[in-house]
Each structure stands twice: as structure tokens, then as C-alpha cells.
Amino acid sequence: MNAIIAKRVDSGTPDTSEIRDLAAAAGYTVVGEVTQSRRADAALQLGEGKAEELAEVAVATEATTVIFDNRLGPYQTYNLGQLLPDGVEVIDRFTLILEIFGQRAQTRKAQLQVELAELRYELPRAEAKTSLAKRDEHPGFMGLGEYDESRERDIKAQISRIKDELEQIEQTEEQRRERRRDSGFDLVALAGYTNAGKSTLLRQLADDLTVEENEDLHPDLDATAESQDKLFTTLGTTTRRASIEPRDVLVTDTVGFISDLPHWLVESFKSTLDSVYRADLVLLVVDISEPIDEIHEKLVTCHDTLYERNEAPIVTVLNKIDTVDDDELAEKREALSSLAPNPVTVSGMEGTNVEELLERIDRELPEWEEERLLLPMTDDTMSVVSWIHDNANVDDVTYGDEDVVVSFEARPAIIEQARSRATELRATAAESA
């Protein structure tokens, strides 16, 4: 698929590197580029002369698609389609992102989120087609498609249905998270921009064998985490177990942020971000090889997004230190100190400082507490002792003739459950006395 990149900026020189990467990720071959520095034209986004130049480039390159890095309104899409050769599709960066999401969506949840985002994007265009049809216009081109009087109603009905199904999936996932907490797991989420190296870092943190051992208990644990130099390699969430003795820690890799996402797209993937919002600790992963201004802007966006709903502590992880020298790393650490006052520097690719990161995760997660329980000897006592062994770090078990004393340390939630089970044992012992 041959594509032309188009981009307009209010001032300065247009940077098309990201939109080219996105186009490549979607499978397009970029055969031309048209850019302009001026205020947006309400009808065409580009100025009229530049839009005509775009049409000439499309003819010369035999392009099938024009990809705008700007957000296009329905009428801009329509007007551009009138200028371009027949059969040339006009899309903007958000349609392109949805194409990539659609290609990468493998789980039912991810597929539903993509479908929801596509419908939310299509709705104003369906409304525009209705308006054009009433004016006896016929928007039958690749941008807006043919007019269908019932399409607007269908879109709204589909949006409602998908939101209901996603809500049911989220309830199931929340129950799974609570079961994990009840089982003594600490939940850690990897967040950050796409291509920051989160999936590669997850592979370094994970303990593969224990994932397989717990496959029946946690069927969504993935024994592999794909690591590629591509945008949006991770669309859904991948959860794996990390080895941080004596803790049981589950680390979840999530879909990456990307700059300038519209509200309707963020909303569609909100439930994916719940894995971040409801974690015990968030690792905010940053690509330290990028320009400092870009890193700063991304950190501000991430903090705004995370602090809106997240209550867990956030640790900034400066990744890819293998790509910068010591002086550049020190300079960037200093420049970012207000946003990342105490970061961990790692190389997910080479495994540098991963042990240091594991130690930091241990320090930042909720403190374990010590407990000593006196359990009466009943028919169920040994199952409780076994449960404590499974979910806590047991220091000592002393068996008497009529009771058992268990000394252990665990997360506060596990200690509360152990106390509750001890109370039930005592009640059972009192009834049988």
C-alpha cells in the first residue's frame, strides 16, 4: 500500500518522523510527503494551493492513501476527497492508529476496544453524511463513504452494546485482581509511551518457570512477552510473575501512551489502563535516548494521566541507558529531576541494573508485617497452617497438644485474612468443647 504523508503546523518545520513510523507499523510504504507551515484552512486543513499540490503528488506516485498527521474533520475529509484522484483514501493519524490497533488486537477485550474507538470516530462522520445528503450532496468517496440513513442509529446501538460487554469483562478482571491480592500477590504495572521498552523490561523482570507453574491458577498469565522495535507491540495486557523474595509479585505490561490522542480514543481504551490505576505500584518507563524536551513532555502527559485516578506510588524507570553515554545520562537525569526525583536507570535490552530495580520495587510496595497466631487444634487447623505457608513467609510453627503457634510475615491483607481464619477456628473449637 503506497501512502503520501501530509502534515500542517502553525509555525516552524513539520516533523513527520512519528507519522512515518506509524505508517510503517500499519504496513504502508511512504512514497511522498507534502508539508506546510501556516494556520489551518477550515475547508481543507492545508491551503488550497498546497492541497492541489497534494493531488498532483498522488497522481505522480500512484498512491492509494493520503495520511494526514493532523486531525481531520468530516467536511475536511470530504473536501480533500473531492480534490484527490478517484480511489485515493484520505485518513488522519487517529484512523491510522485504529488500523494498527485492529491489526494487533488478539483478545476479545482488545477487539471490542478497537471496535468501540472506530465507532466513536465514525459517529460524527455519519452525522456529517446525513447533513450532506440533506443538502443533496453525495459523499460517495473513500473518505466518508456512501450515505445510509440508518447508520447513525446503528452506530449508537453498537456503542451501547460494546460498552456493556466491556463493563462485564472489567468486572471479571477486577475480581481476578482481588483474588490475586487475596492470594498474597503484589500488583505492579508498567506504564509509559509506546516503544519505551516496557515489554523488553518485563522479560527481564519475569520468572518464567513460576508463570508456568501458576498457569492453572492464573490462566491469563502469558509465558511470553513480545519484544520488538515496533509501535503498539502490546495492545492488551500481559501479566507475568517476578521473583522478589519473599514476595509474590505480578507485573503487567500495558498498551503504550502516544502523543496527542483524542478523548474518544483514550475513553475506548480506559479499561486497559485500569490495570495501571489499580496496581500497588506503577513503573513509569521512559526511553532515555530521546531528546530531553520530548522526554519532558511525555513525562508531564503521563503524570497528568496517572495522577488523575492512580493512588499507587510511581517510580520512574529511565530505560535504554545502553544507548547513551554517562555524561548524557547525568545531564538528562538532572534536567528531569523535578519530574523524576529518584529514578532507576536500567537497560532492559542488556539487563543492566535490573537487580537494583527489583530491590526498589520491594522497597516501594506495601510493607510486610509480622504476626504470631495461636490456633486451636481442630479438624481444619492444618489447612489454615498450609494456607499461611502458601501466602506468607513463615518463620516458625510450634505444635502443642491442643494448639499450634504460627509466626510469619505477610502483606497486611493476608494477615487480616489469617486472623479471620483463626477466629473461625476458635469458634469451631468452642462449639465442640
TrEMBL record:
- Residue ranges occupied by any Hflx-type G domain in the UniProt entry: 186-369
Q: GO molecular function: any one?
A: GTP binding
Q: What is its main location?
A: cytoplasm
Q: State the UniProt keywords alphabetically.
A: Coiled coil, Cytoplasm, GTP-binding, Magnesium, Metal-binding, Nucleotide-binding
The UniProt entry's coiled-coil ranges are: 102-182
Where does this protein hold Mg(2+)?
199, 234
The signal peptide here is none
Which cofactors must be present for this protein to function?
Answer: Mg(2+)
Provide the transmembrane region boundaries.
Answer: none
What Gene3D superfamilies does this protein's entry cite? 6.10.250.2860, GTPase HflX, N-terminal domain (3.40.50.11060), P-loop containing nucleotide triphosphate hydrolases (3.40.50.300)
Q: Where does GTP bind?
A: 192-199, 253-256, 319-322
Localization recorded for this chain is: Cytoplasm
The record's annotation in InterPro entries points to:
G_HFLX_dom, GTP-bd, GTP-bd_M, GTPase_HflX, GTPase_HflX_N, GTPase_HflX_N_sf, P-loop_NTPase
| Cellular component terms (Gene Ontology) | cytoplasm
Q: Kindly state the subunit structure of this protein.
A: Monomer. Associates with the 50S ribosomal subunit.
* NCBIfam families listed in its UniProt record: GTP_HflX
State what this protein does: GTPase that associates with the 50S ribosomal subunit and may have a role during protein synthesis or ribosome biogenesis.
Regarding protein family, the annotation reads: Belongs to the TRAFAC class OBG-HflX-like GTPase superfamily. HflX GTPase family.
**Name of the molecule in the record:** GTPase HflX
> What organism is this sequence from?
Natronorubrum tibetense GA33
